[in-house]
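re: that chain from earlier
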Amino acid sequence: MDVERNPGLIAKLVLNDGTVLKGEGFGFSSITVGEIVFNTGMVGYTESLTDPSYRGQILCFTYPLIGNYGVPEFRRRDKYNLPVGFESESIQVSGVIVNEICEKPSHWASKITLNEWLKQSKVSGIYGIDTRELTKKIRVHGVMMSILEVSKEPSSDDFLIKKLENNLNYNDINFVEKVSVKEPVEYGVGDNKVVLIDCGVKLNIVRELLRRGLKVIRVPHDTSSRDILDFQPRGVIVSNGPGNPKQCVKTVRTVNELFDESIPLLGICLGTQIIGLALGGDTYKLKYGHRGQNKPCIDLGTLRSYVTSQNHGYAINPKSLEGTGLKPWFVNADDKTIEGLKHKNGRCISVQFHPEASPGPNDTEYVFDEFLNILKGDSSE
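^ sequence. v structure.
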Protein backbone atom coordinates (compact mmCIF):
# COMPACT_ATOMS: atom_id res chain seq x y z
CA MET A 1 0.00 0.00 0.00
CA ASP A 2 1.57 3.28 -1.12
CA VAL A 3 0.54 5.41 1.84
CA GLU A 4 2.26 8.29 3.60
CA ARG A 5 1.58 6.95 7.05
CA ASN A 6 0.98 9.17 10.06
CA PRO A 7 3.88 7.99 12.25
CA GLY A 8 2.64 5.92 15.14
CA LEU A 9 -1.02 6.87 14.65
CA ILE A 10 -3.21 3.96 15.74
CA ALA A 11 -6.98 3.75 15.28
CA LYS A 12 -9.67 1.84 17.15
CA LEU A 13 -13.31 1.53 16.16
CA VAL A 14 -15.65 0.23 18.88
CA LEU A 15 -19.28 -0.65 18.13
CA ASN A 16 -22.02 -0.75 20.74
CA ASP A 17 -22.39 -4.51 20.27
CA GLY A 18 -18.91 -4.84 21.78
CA THR A 19 -17.01 -5.33 18.50
CA VAL A 20 -13.52 -3.75 18.50
CA LEU A 21 -11.73 -3.15 15.19
CA LYS A 22 -8.10 -2.01 15.05
CA GLY A 23 -6.48 -0.26 12.11
CA GLU A 24 -4.25 2.67 11.27
CA GLY A 25 -5.25 6.26 11.74
CA PHE A 26 -5.32 9.16 9.31
CA GLY A 27 -6.58 12.70 9.49
CA PHE A 28 -6.95 14.22 12.95
CA SER A 29 -6.10 12.63 16.31
CA SER A 30 -9.23 12.56 18.45
CA ILE A 31 -12.02 10.49 19.98
CA THR A 32 -15.37 10.85 18.26
CA VAL A 33 -18.77 9.22 18.71
CA GLY A 34 -21.37 8.72 15.99
CA GLU A 35 -23.86 6.40 14.36
CA ILE A 36 -22.00 4.09 11.99
CA VAL A 37 -23.43 3.86 8.45
CA PHE A 38 -22.14 2.75 5.05
CA ASN A 39 -22.23 4.25 1.55
CA THR A 40 -22.07 2.02 -1.55
CA GLY A 41 -20.99 4.72 -4.01
CA MET A 42 -17.83 4.30 -6.07
CA VAL A 43 -17.12 8.04 -6.47
CA GLY A 44 -18.03 11.35 -4.91
CA TYR A 45 -16.29 11.20 -1.55
CA THR A 46 -15.83 14.99 -1.36
CA GLU A 47 -19.56 15.51 -1.91
CA SER A 48 -20.49 12.75 0.53
CA LEU A 49 -18.19 13.97 3.31
CA THR A 50 -19.63 17.51 3.02
CA ASP A 51 -23.28 16.39 2.85
CA PRO A 52 -25.02 17.78 5.98
CA SER A 53 -27.27 14.72 6.06
CA TYR A 54 -24.26 12.81 7.47
CA ARG A 55 -23.92 15.06 10.54
CA GLY A 56 -23.50 12.90 13.64
CA GLN A 57 -22.47 9.80 11.68
CA ILE A 58 -19.25 7.86 11.11
CA LEU A 59 -19.19 6.96 7.44
CA CYS A 60 -17.85 3.69 6.07
CA PHE A 61 -17.11 3.64 2.33
CA THR A 62 -17.68 0.21 0.80
CA TYR A 63 -15.57 1.03 -2.26
CA PRO A 64 -12.11 -0.24 -1.26
CA LEU A 65 -9.89 2.65 -2.43
CA ILE A 66 -10.76 6.22 -1.42
CA GLY A 67 -8.84 9.41 -2.13
CA ASN A 68 -7.45 8.49 -5.55
CA TYR A 69 -8.50 11.78 -7.20
CA GLY A 70 -7.58 13.95 -4.22
CA VAL A 71 -9.48 16.98 -2.98
CA PRO A 72 -10.06 20.11 -5.11
CA GLU A 73 -9.51 23.68 -3.99
CA PHE A 74 -12.49 24.96 -2.03
CA ARG A 75 -12.30 28.45 -3.49
CA ARG A 76 -12.96 27.10 -6.99
CA ARG A 77 -16.50 28.35 -7.69
CA ASP A 78 -19.13 28.05 -10.41
CA LYS A 79 -21.10 30.90 -12.01
CA TYR A 80 -23.45 30.94 -9.01
CA ASN A 81 -20.48 31.38 -6.64
CA LEU A 82 -21.05 27.91 -5.18
CA PRO A 83 -18.04 25.64 -4.48
CA VAL A 84 -17.45 22.91 -7.05
CA GLY A 85 -17.23 19.38 -5.66
CA PHE A 86 -18.54 20.18 -2.17
CA GLU A 87 -22.09 20.14 -0.80
CA SER A 88 -21.54 22.47 2.16
CA GLU A 89 -18.89 24.71 3.67
CA SER A 90 -17.06 21.93 5.56
CA ILE A 91 -16.80 18.21 6.26
CA GLN A 92 -19.96 17.10 8.06
CA VAL A 93 -19.25 13.49 9.07
CA SER A 94 -17.95 12.67 12.53
CA GLY A 95 -15.43 10.15 11.23
CA VAL A 96 -14.34 8.21 8.15
CA ILE A 97 -13.75 4.49 7.59
CA VAL A 98 -11.96 3.16 4.50
CA ASN A 99 -10.18 -0.02 3.54
CA GLU A 100 -7.33 1.73 1.73
CA ILE A 101 -6.50 5.42 1.45
CA CYS A 102 -4.60 6.89 -1.51
CA GLU A 103 -1.84 9.37 -0.66
CA LYS A 104 -0.72 10.04 -4.24
CA PRO A 105 -3.89 11.15 -6.03
CA SER A 106 -4.00 11.84 -9.76
CA HIS A 107 -6.41 14.53 -10.97
CA TRP A 108 -5.95 17.96 -12.55
CA ALA A 109 -8.13 19.64 -9.88
CA SER A 110 -6.50 17.93 -6.89
CA LYS A 111 -4.87 20.31 -4.43
CA ILE A 112 -4.46 18.21 -1.27
CA THR A 113 -4.86 14.58 -0.25
CA LEU A 114 -7.83 13.18 1.64
CA ASN A 115 -5.55 12.63 4.62
CA GLU A 116 -4.48 16.29 4.61
CA TRP A 117 -8.07 17.50 4.20
CA LEU A 118 -9.30 15.50 7.19
CA LYS A 119 -6.35 16.67 9.26
CA GLN A 120 -7.08 20.32 8.42
CA SER A 121 -10.78 19.79 9.15
CA LYS A 122 -10.07 18.04 12.48
CA VAL A 123 -11.88 14.87 11.41
CA SER A 124 -10.56 11.40 12.26
CA GLY A 125 -10.25 8.42 9.94
CA ILE A 126 -9.36 4.74 10.14
CA TYR A 127 -8.00 2.56 7.33
CA GLY A 128 -6.66 -0.95 7.00
CA ILE A 129 -9.77 -2.71 8.28
CA ASP A 130 -12.09 -5.08 6.43
CA THR A 131 -14.85 -2.68 5.37
CA ARG A 132 -16.67 -5.51 3.58
CA GLU A 133 -17.00 -7.48 6.81
CA LEU A 134 -18.02 -4.33 8.70
CA THR A 135 -20.74 -3.58 6.13
CA LYS A 136 -22.08 -7.14 6.39
CA LYS A 137 -22.26 -6.72 10.17
CA ILE A 138 -24.26 -3.48 9.82
CA ARG A 139 -26.64 -5.11 7.35
CA VAL A 140 -27.33 -7.93 9.81
CA HIS A 141 -27.35 -5.93 13.05
CA GLY A 142 -28.51 -2.56 11.70
CA VAL A 143 -26.87 0.83 12.20
CA MET A 144 -25.46 1.33 15.67
CA MET A 145 -23.62 3.87 17.75
CA SER A 146 -19.83 3.62 17.63
CA ILE A 147 -16.73 5.38 18.85
CA LEU A 148 -13.58 6.05 16.83
CA GLU A 149 -10.26 6.85 18.46
CA VAL A 150 -7.19 7.96 16.51
CA SER A 151 -4.10 8.53 18.65
CA LYS A 152 -0.49 7.54 19.25
CA GLU A 153 -1.37 5.89 22.54
CA PRO A 154 -4.74 4.11 22.25
CA SER A 155 -7.11 3.91 25.20
CA SER A 156 -8.23 0.59 26.63
CA ASP A 157 -11.23 -1.14 25.08
CA ASP A 158 -13.11 -0.87 28.38
CA PHE A 159 -12.57 2.91 28.52
CA LEU A 160 -13.93 3.39 24.99
CA ILE A 161 -16.90 1.08 25.59
CA LYS A 162 -17.80 2.99 28.77
CA LYS A 163 -17.47 6.33 26.98
CA LEU A 164 -19.73 5.07 24.20
CA GLU A 165 -22.35 3.90 26.70
CA ASN A 166 -22.47 7.37 28.28
CA ASN A 167 -23.26 9.17 25.01
CA LEU A 168 -26.70 10.10 23.67
CA ASN A 169 -28.32 7.96 21.01
CA TYR A 170 -28.33 9.37 17.48
CA ASN A 171 -32.15 9.26 17.31
CA ASP A 172 -32.50 11.60 20.31
CA ILE A 173 -30.45 14.53 18.94
CA ASN A 174 -31.77 17.36 16.77
CA PHE A 175 -28.97 17.55 14.21
CA VAL A 176 -30.94 19.84 11.89
CA GLU A 177 -30.46 22.81 14.21
CA LYS A 178 -26.71 22.19 14.02
CA VAL A 179 -26.49 22.41 10.21
CA SER A 180 -29.16 24.94 9.25
CA VAL A 181 -28.29 28.57 8.46
CA LYS A 182 -28.95 31.06 11.25
CA GLU A 183 -30.12 33.92 9.02
CA PRO A 184 -31.76 34.04 5.56
CA VAL A 185 -29.40 33.80 2.58
CA GLU A 186 -30.44 34.89 -0.92
CA TYR A 187 -29.21 33.47 -4.24
CA GLY A 188 -30.03 34.75 -7.70
CA VAL A 189 -32.12 37.73 -8.78
CA GLY A 190 -35.61 38.54 -9.98
CA ASP A 191 -39.17 38.19 -8.74
CA ASN A 192 -39.52 34.47 -9.46
CA LYS A 193 -38.90 33.60 -5.80
CA VAL A 194 -38.97 30.33 -3.87
CA VAL A 195 -38.16 29.79 -0.21
CA LEU A 196 -35.86 26.91 0.69
CA ILE A 197 -36.29 25.69 4.28
CA ASP A 198 -32.74 24.69 5.20
CA CYS A 199 -32.71 21.49 7.22
CA GLY A 200 -29.16 20.77 6.04
CA VAL A 201 -29.45 21.51 2.34
CA LYS A 202 -26.95 20.25 -0.22
CA LEU A 203 -25.66 23.10 -2.35
CA ASN A 204 -26.52 21.34 -5.59
CA ILE A 205 -30.20 21.73 -4.71
CA VAL A 206 -29.63 25.49 -4.69
CA ARG A 207 -27.74 25.18 -7.97
CA GLU A 208 -30.54 23.21 -9.67
CA LEU A 209 -33.12 25.80 -8.61
CA LEU A 210 -30.94 28.64 -9.90
CA ARG A 211 -30.47 26.85 -13.22
CA ARG A 212 -34.23 27.02 -13.66
CA GLY A 213 -34.33 30.77 -13.28
CA LEU A 214 -35.58 30.87 -9.70
CA LYS A 215 -34.45 33.27 -7.02
CA VAL A 216 -33.76 31.20 -3.89
CA ILE A 217 -34.25 32.47 -0.35
CA ARG A 218 -32.67 29.98 2.05
CA VAL A 219 -34.13 30.28 5.55
CA PRO A 220 -33.39 28.63 8.92
CA HIS A 221 -35.19 25.40 9.76
CA ASP A 222 -37.27 27.05 12.50
CA THR A 223 -38.56 29.96 10.41
CA SER A 224 -42.28 30.52 10.98
CA SER A 225 -44.83 30.18 8.20
CA ARG A 226 -45.70 33.86 8.62
CA ASP A 227 -42.09 34.93 8.03
CA ILE A 228 -41.87 32.63 4.99
CA LEU A 229 -45.08 34.03 3.51
CA ASP A 230 -43.74 37.56 4.02
CA PHE A 231 -41.21 36.79 1.28
CA GLN A 232 -44.19 36.21 -1.07
CA PRO A 233 -42.66 33.05 -2.59
CA ARG A 234 -44.24 31.15 -5.45
CA GLY A 235 -43.36 27.90 -3.73
CA VAL A 236 -41.44 26.34 -0.83
CA ILE A 237 -38.83 23.58 -0.86
CA VAL A 238 -38.14 21.53 2.28
CA SER A 239 -34.57 20.31 2.06
CA ASN A 240 -32.64 17.20 2.97
CA GLY A 241 -30.94 17.00 6.34
CA PRO A 242 -29.69 14.75 9.14
CA GLY A 243 -31.30 12.85 11.95
CA ASN A 244 -34.71 11.79 13.14
CA PRO A 245 -37.50 13.75 11.38
CA LYS A 246 -39.59 13.65 14.57
CA GLN A 247 -37.02 15.97 16.16
CA CYS A 248 -38.00 18.67 13.62
CA VAL A 249 -41.09 19.80 15.52
CA LYS A 250 -40.97 23.46 14.45
CA THR A 251 -40.36 22.64 10.80
CA VAL A 252 -43.22 20.14 10.76
CA ARG A 253 -45.57 22.76 12.21
CA THR A 254 -44.44 25.36 9.66
CA VAL A 255 -44.98 22.97 6.73
CA ASN A 256 -48.45 22.08 8.05
CA GLU A 257 -49.37 25.77 8.10
CA LEU A 258 -47.92 26.40 4.64
CA PHE A 259 -49.91 23.48 3.27
CA ASP A 260 -53.07 25.02 4.70
CA GLU A 261 -52.17 28.20 2.79
CA SER A 262 -52.16 26.11 -0.44
CA ILE A 263 -48.61 27.16 -1.33
CA PRO A 264 -46.82 24.69 -3.67
CA LEU A 265 -44.43 22.40 -1.78
CA LEU A 266 -41.46 20.24 -2.80
CA GLY A 267 -39.78 17.95 -0.28
CA ILE A 268 -36.38 16.31 -0.80
CA CYS A 269 -35.13 13.43 1.38
CA LEU A 270 -35.76 14.57 4.98
CA GLY A 271 -38.20 17.02 3.41
CA THR A 272 -40.36 14.08 2.35
CA GLN A 273 -40.52 12.79 5.90
CA ILE A 274 -41.33 16.27 7.24
CA ILE A 275 -44.16 16.70 4.72
CA GLY A 276 -45.47 13.25 5.64
CA LEU A 277 -45.46 14.11 9.35
CA ALA A 278 -46.97 17.55 8.71
CA LEU A 279 -49.97 16.06 6.91
CA GLY A 280 -50.65 13.38 9.52
CA GLY A 281 -48.43 10.51 8.41
CA ASP A 282 -45.76 8.68 10.36
CA THR A 283 -42.10 7.74 9.92
CA TYR A 284 -39.90 4.87 11.07
CA LYS A 285 -36.21 4.07 11.10
CA LEU A 286 -34.76 1.76 8.46
CA LYS A 287 -32.50 -1.07 9.58
CA TYR A 288 -29.42 0.22 7.76
CA GLY A 289 -30.75 2.93 5.47
CA HIS A 290 -30.19 3.75 1.81
CA ARG A 291 -26.86 5.44 1.10
CA GLY A 292 -25.23 5.34 -2.32
CA GLN A 293 -25.63 6.32 -5.97
CA ASN A 294 -27.10 3.10 -7.31
CA LYS A 295 -30.53 2.79 -5.71
CA PRO A 296 -33.35 1.74 -8.09
CA CYS A 297 -36.71 3.48 -7.72
CA ILE A 298 -39.94 2.90 -9.64
CA ASP A 299 -42.27 5.71 -10.71
CA LEU A 300 -45.70 4.24 -9.92
CA GLY A 301 -47.32 6.44 -12.55
CA THR A 302 -45.24 5.19 -15.47
CA LEU A 303 -43.70 2.00 -13.95
CA ARG A 304 -40.39 3.29 -15.22
CA SER A 305 -37.34 2.53 -13.08
CA TYR A 306 -34.67 5.12 -12.27
CA VAL A 307 -31.22 4.83 -10.73
CA THR A 308 -31.02 7.33 -7.87
CA SER A 309 -28.62 8.88 -5.40
CA GLN A 310 -29.73 8.42 -1.79
CA ASN A 311 -28.73 9.19 1.78
CA HIS A 312 -31.42 8.53 4.37
CA GLY A 313 -32.02 6.35 7.41
CA TYR A 314 -35.75 6.97 7.94
CA ALA A 315 -38.80 6.36 5.77
CA ILE A 316 -42.54 7.02 5.52
CA ASN A 317 -44.87 4.37 6.93
CA PRO A 318 -47.25 3.62 4.02
CA LYS A 319 -50.05 2.53 6.37
CA SER A 320 -50.02 5.99 7.96
CA LEU A 321 -50.96 7.79 4.72
CA GLU A 322 -54.65 6.91 4.84
CA GLY A 323 -56.68 10.10 5.14
CA THR A 324 -53.71 12.40 4.51
CA GLY A 325 -54.35 12.95 0.80
CA LEU A 326 -50.82 11.72 0.10
CA LYS A 327 -50.18 8.83 -2.27
CA PRO A 328 -46.91 7.03 -3.03
CA TRP A 329 -45.20 8.41 -6.14
CA PHE A 330 -42.02 6.30 -6.14
CA VAL A 331 -41.12 3.05 -4.39
CA ASN A 332 -37.74 1.43 -3.88
CA ALA A 333 -37.33 -1.54 -6.24
CA ASP A 334 -35.31 -3.45 -3.64
CA ASP A 335 -37.30 -3.20 -0.41
CA LYS A 336 -40.53 -1.51 -1.62
CA THR A 337 -40.18 1.43 0.79
CA ILE A 338 -41.76 4.73 -0.21
CA GLU A 339 -39.39 6.95 -2.22
CA GLY A 340 -41.76 9.76 -3.15
CA LEU A 341 -45.17 11.27 -2.44
CA LYS A 342 -47.81 13.28 -4.28
CA HIS A 343 -50.82 14.99 -2.75
CA LYS A 344 -54.20 14.74 -4.43
CA ASN A 345 -54.38 18.55 -4.65
CA GLY A 346 -51.55 18.48 -7.21
CA ARG A 347 -49.57 21.19 -5.40
CA CYS A 348 -47.40 19.10 -3.07
CA ILE A 349 -44.76 16.60 -4.23
CA SER A 350 -41.73 15.04 -2.59
CA VAL A 351 -38.97 12.51 -3.21
CA GLN A 352 -36.92 10.50 -0.74
CA PHE A 353 -33.94 10.28 -3.10
CA HIS A 354 -31.74 13.16 -4.33
CA PRO A 355 -32.83 14.47 -7.76
CA GLU A 356 -29.88 16.89 -7.68
CA ALA A 357 -27.46 13.91 -7.31
CA SER A 358 -23.94 15.17 -6.43
CA PRO A 359 -22.70 12.54 -6.41
CA GLY A 360 -24.71 10.19 -8.52
CA PRO A 361 -26.82 9.85 -11.66
CA ASN A 362 -28.91 12.73 -13.01
CA ASP A 363 -31.83 10.53 -14.12
CA THR A 364 -34.35 12.23 -11.83
CA GLU A 365 -33.48 15.91 -12.32
CA TYR A 366 -36.90 16.20 -13.94
CA VAL A 367 -38.42 16.31 -10.44
CA PHE A 368 -37.35 19.97 -10.31
CA ASP A 369 -39.10 20.53 -13.63
CA GLU A 370 -42.26 18.92 -12.25
CA PHE A 371 -42.15 21.42 -9.40
CA LEU A 372 -41.54 24.25 -11.88
CA ASN A 373 -44.64 23.14 -13.81
CA ILE A 374 -46.65 23.35 -10.58
CA LEU A 375 -45.37 26.88 -10.05
CA LYS A 376 -46.24 27.86 -13.64
CA GLY A 377 -49.72 26.41 -13.30
CA ASP A 378 -50.16 28.26 -10.04
CA SER A 379 -49.19 31.60 -11.61
CA SER A 380 -51.65 31.14 -14.51
CA GLU A 381 -54.65 30.63 -12.25
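The longest strand covers residues 283-299.
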